[in-house]
Amino acid sequence: MEFLTAIRNRYRYSIILLRQLVITDFKLRYQGSVLGYAWSLVRPLALFTILLIVFGFILKVGSNIPHYSIYLLLGIVLWGFFTEATVNGLQSIVSRSGIIRKLNFPRYVIVVSGTISALINLGISLVVVAAFMLFQGVALHPVALLFPLLVLEMYVFALALSFFLAALYVKFRDITYMWELLIQAAFYATPILYPLSIVVTKSPLIAKLMMLNPMAQIIQDSRYVLVSTDTTTSRDVIHNPLIAVIPILIVIVVSITAAMYFRKSSKYFAEDV
Questions:
Q1: Residue 22, pLDDT score
Q2: Torsion-angle region of 143 (φ positive above 0: left; ψ -120 to 50: alpha; else: beta)
């Protein structure tokens, strides 16, 4: 009990600051807009509708997948969180340069606040996913209890990349353009719009390489536990269990490396921003 109290007292100021940053960021994001917070739902739903029409009804991509619309929506929502969290994190230090120069506080709080804002939007979007699942009669299985762990893995990965990108962006402003290109390419290189089974049929090797991407593993596993147990996952593509855990190892290595780099770089943020 004393240990928990000591931890709480040590990070009390950081928690208070984090809460205020999250509240401020969430209020300012939609300030002055007509729809306000509804935009956090409108954007993914609009993209989902367009892609469903093109890939689902015109190209018939997911005709053999149970509940393809939910399958597609869940992938879009999860990728949307990853994009929003990393973009927010990338810009977080530079966008808060004013308070960084004036106040002395843990710099990591700023990056975390940006990713938590994205996490709140993810929670709102997942309510919509749940409503669609209920409407379409998607049956939940006990494996659905694993979904929070997948969200945790995704958040840790996004937060780690945010720390790394935020520190880089302070020194190299071209990082924002490079990340936009990279994340756009990664969107199409991840089985979000198309089933992984199509890639397996065309090239098993490419499918294996794709599933080494932590986001591909997270999205496919999320579809497996929430939408359909017929979903092709990394375990179906990569039969060697030592190779199958590479996405998780990548998350761990990136997290450790990013934390060390951010901690080292944060000493000079006040001078560089």
A1: 79
A2: alpha
Q: Is the pLDDT of residue 34 over 60?
A: no
pTM of the model: 0.89
How would you class 183 by CB atoms within 10 Å of its CB: exposed for 0-12, middle for 13-18, buried for 19 or more? middle
Percent of the chain with pLDDT over 90: 42
CB count in 10 Å sphere of residue 106 = 14
Residue with the two structure tokens 């060697």 = 240
- CA-to-CA separations, 175 to 96, 117, 260, in angstroms, rounded: 17, 22, 19
- The answer to whether 210 touches 202, Cβ cutoff 8 Å, is no
> How far is the C-alpha of 234 from the C-alpha of 223, rounded, in Å?
12
| Domain boundaries defined on the chain | 17-272
Rounded distance between C-alpha atoms, residue 75 and residue 226, angstroms? 11
- Alpha helix positions (H), 137-268: 147-171, 175-189, 196-202, 204-210, 214-226, 234-237, 241-244, 246-265
| Mean pLDDT, rounded, for 106-127 | 88
Measured distance CA(226)–CA(219) in Å, rounded: 10
Q: Could you tell me how many helices (H) and strands (E) the chain has, helices first?
A: 15, 0
- pLDDT the model gives residue 67: 84
257-265 contacts at long range (C-beta below 8 A, 24 or more positions apart): 257/160, 257/164, 258/160, 258/161, 258/163, 258/164, 259/160, 259/163, 261/163, 261/164, 261/167, 262/107, 262/108, 262/111, 262/163, 262/164, 262/166, 262/167, 265/167, 265/170, 265/171
Tell me how far the alpha carbon of residue 53 is from its chain's centroid.
25
Report the alpha-carbon distance of residue 99 to residue 183 in Å, rounded: 29
pLDDT band at 158 (very low <50, low <70, confident <90, very high): very high
